[in-house]
Specification:
mainly alpha, 16 helices, about 425 residues, globular, 4 strands
Length: about 425
């Protein structure tokens, strides 16, 4: 057995083992505290709602456990099991040139992967979410979303994949640098285009009609120095009862978006506080820092791939007999998460730091008390657990645990 094969198997087993251990810790911690409402939430969330959140969390953990095992099995079948090699041989038999052979190989792999993931997506939507009263997606809407996503993949994916493979095959030793520039440009283009051209394919966005609320928001935007192309309400209730708010886009194409479910559950003060938190990410330059971080990681990753593609053992050790640019790209994307798993806590730590900073900004521009009330309502409406395992949360969660976040905001209450 090749040394890299052994390293891959070791890292896969180690990452899977850590995931399972953390998930069991989380399940045990949530179950242990299921019967008792945390004191900080007494009088704000009922014991029944707390127990619903615990059961919902346990249900997601159980599904996630099977998904992890299934995903590891599929990864092994694709690589050491010869799945990618077989698919590559089938495309080699078509007689296509290297470029379009590679495009077809990658697109067919994406299709196969989507079909393999479909049972879990169906179960999550129509069993788990349905059981806890969150799902509002109809089978027709589910199918429609699938076709739209597939069409987007063809329209956007084919040119991008073809350009990347062409650069890999034709641009010389520094191809990875040119691919990084293309990928960075594509990312920025999608950030700009998503709110106006892509998101409306899946949801309706109506201008906010509540004039009093609009005036409050406009005043907040002026205080924060934020300009946007409008304040919109999204029909999130078509698919889910979960509520949220966000701003998207970049440059002169930024939009503020409220889920209709969020507007139904929060009052004007609370909505203003939630928006102030989202604007905090903008004012504290979190979006820019995350984008730079992502670009740096992709730069390092592509530079590494630029070296690996020249190593015959990279292909043979992962079950592919014939080296090629398309096989190298796919292998790298499949196995990299196994090796990058252990930097996940650092990423989560950075994101939680950003959430605290955005909370502090909201306390300055709106009201810490209003944000606390809004968060408590959202925890209840979204059935978010109030008692996560600290280690599980530190590893996975991009937001601070509910008790920690509320306690931090409580220090900002005006006396």
């Amino acid at each position: 057995m090749h040394g890299f094969t052994l390293l891959f198997l070791l890292m896969l087993a180690l990452s899977l083992g850590v995931e399972i251990w953390l998930a069991r810790r989380q399940a045990r911690h949530v179950h242990t505290h299921r019967a008792t409402l945390p004191e900080a939430f007494a009088g704000q969330i009922s014991l029944e709602a707390h127990q619903k959140a615990a059961d919902y969390t346990l249900g997601k953990l159980k599904l996630g456990h099977y998904e992890r095992l299934y995903g590891a099995l599929i990864l092994l079948l694709f690589t050491l099991g010869g799945g990618l090699n077989l698919l590559d041989q089938l495309w080699q038999g078509t007689g296509l040139g290297a470029l379009w052979l590679g495009v077809g190989f990658i697109l067919s792999l994406l299709l196969i992967s989507s079909l393999l993931e479909l049972p879990f997506s169906l179960y999550r939507t129509f069993r788990l979410e349905q059981a806890f009263g969150f799902n509002r997606t109809t089978p027709a809407l589910f199918i429609s979303d699938m076709f739209k996503q597939g069409l987007l993949l063809l329209v956007l994916g084919i040119p991008l994949i073809a350009l990347v493979l062409w650069l890999m095959q034709s641009a010389g030793a520094l191809w990875w640098l040119y691919v990084w520039l293309v990928w960075s440009g594509f990312t920025l283009l999608m950030l700009w285009a998503y709110p106006a051209f892509i998101a409306p394919l899946f949801n309706r966005f109506e201008p906010l009609q509540d004039e009093a609320l609009r005036q409050r928001i406009d005043a907040l935007l002026q205080r924060c120095g934020f300009t946007s192309q409008g304040i919109f309400v999204m029909d999130g209730s078509r698919r889910s009862a979960h509520g949220n708010a966000y701003f998207s886009g970049t440059g002169n194409n930024k939009r503020i978006v409220f889920f209709d479910t969020l507007l139904e559950s929060l009052n004007g003060d609370e909505i203003e506080a939630v928006l102030a938190h989202e604007l905090g990410h903008f004012r504290r330059k979190h979006v820019r820092s995350r984008l730079i971080q992502m670009m740096l990681m992709s730069f390092v990753g592509l530079a590494l791939l630029g070296w690996l593609i020249q190593q015959p053992w990279f292909f043979s050790a992962l079950g592919v007999a014939q080296p090629s640019t398309h096989a190298a790209l796919v292998l790298f994307l499949l196995v990299m998460p196994v090796f990058s798993f252990f930097i996940q806590p650092l990423m989560a730590l950075s994101m939680r730091k950003h959430e605290f900073e955005a909370d502090n900004f909201a306390a300055e521009q709106a009201s810490a008390e209003d944000l606390i009330r809004a968060l408590v309502k959202l925890y209840k409406e979204n059935a978010s657990t109030l008692t996560p395992d600290p280690l599980y949360s530190a590893w996975h969660d991009s937001h601070p645990p509910a008790p920690v976040r509320i306690a931090q905001l409580s220090t900002r209450l005006k006396t």
